[in-house]
Amino acid sequence: MVQLENVTLVYENSGTTALEDLDLNIGRGEFAFLVGPSGSGKTSIIKLLTGELRATEGEVYVNGFDMVRIKRRKLPKMRRTIGVVFQDFRLIDKMTVYDNVAFAMRVVGASNKAIHERVPYVLELVGLQGYEDRRPEEMSGGEQQRVAIARALVNSPQMIIADEPTGNLDPVKSLEIMLLMEKINNLGTTVLVVTHERELVNAFSRRVIAIENGHVVSDGTVSYYGDEDE
After folding, report:
1. What tens digit of pLDDT does each residue of 164-209 get?
2. Cβ–Cβ contacts within 10 Å for residue 215, how many?
3. Rounded distance, CA 201 to CA 165, Å?
4. 94 vs 16: CA distance, rounded Å
5. How many other CB atoms are found less than 10 A from the CB of residue 35?
C-alpha cells in the first residue's frame, strides 16, 4: 500500500533536509496515526504520498505506483486511489452538500447514473442522509468535515489520508470524526491520520508512527508520549 525506503527529502529552494533516510510501510487495510511536533516532517510525508513532491533519494511506492519515477500524466490516475481530508474542509461554499460530493466524481468523468447511485450511499455512510440540499454555511464544523470525508470517499479510494482532520473541532466532534474513520477502515479502506492531538490518539489502540526531525523515532501500538507495546 505505502512503502518508503531510505527516503531523503531536501527542499531545493532552502536546502532544508525535511526527511533523512526514512523507512515507513503501511499495509493494505491498516489504520495508523502519524504524529510529531510542528516541523517534524509529517507534511513532507503527505506531499510525497500525494505526488506533490518527489524524494531526493530513496524509493516511494503508493498503491502500486512508483512515486519517484511516475510520469506527470499518470498522477491523476494515482491520485484517484487516495482520498485526502483536510483540517479546513475545503468545501465549495456556493454548492450544496450533494453537489460538493458529486463534484469529485464529475472531475474524474463519472456518469450521472454512477453519481446518483454513489453520492446518497456515501452521505448515508458518514451520517448525512437528509443533508443533501444544505450549504456549508448552514452546517456545523463537524458536519462540514463529514461532507469533506464523503467527498474523499466517493471515488472509492484504496486509502484515506486525513491531515489534522479534527484541528478545527471541539473534543466531542473530534471523537465522532475519529469513530467515523474507524468505521471507514472497518469497511476495508486504509486510513492514515496525521495529527498532533495527544488525547485523541490515546483514545484509540492503534498503530502510532512518531516522527521527529525527519526520522521515525517510534512505531507501534502506543500511547502518544506513552508506553509502547510492540
Report:
1. 999 889 999 999 999 999 999 999 999 999 998 888 898 898 999 9
2. 15
3. 12
4. 40
5. 24
For 172, the grid coordinates are: 466531542
Tell the burial category of 132 from Cβ atoms under 10 Å away from its Cβ (0-12, 13-18, 19+).
middle
What residues have CB less than 8 Å from 121, skipping those under 6 apart? Answer: none
What cell numbers appear for 163 in the block? Answer: 491531515
Q: At what angle do helices 112-125 and 97-107 cross, to 10 degrees?
A: 130
CA gap 20, 10 in Å, rounded: 8
Helix (H, G, I), strand (E, B) or coil at 202: helix
pTM of the model: 0.91
Mean pLDDT is lowest, of 31-35, 87-91, 111-115, 123-127, for 87-91
Cell of 35: 504524529
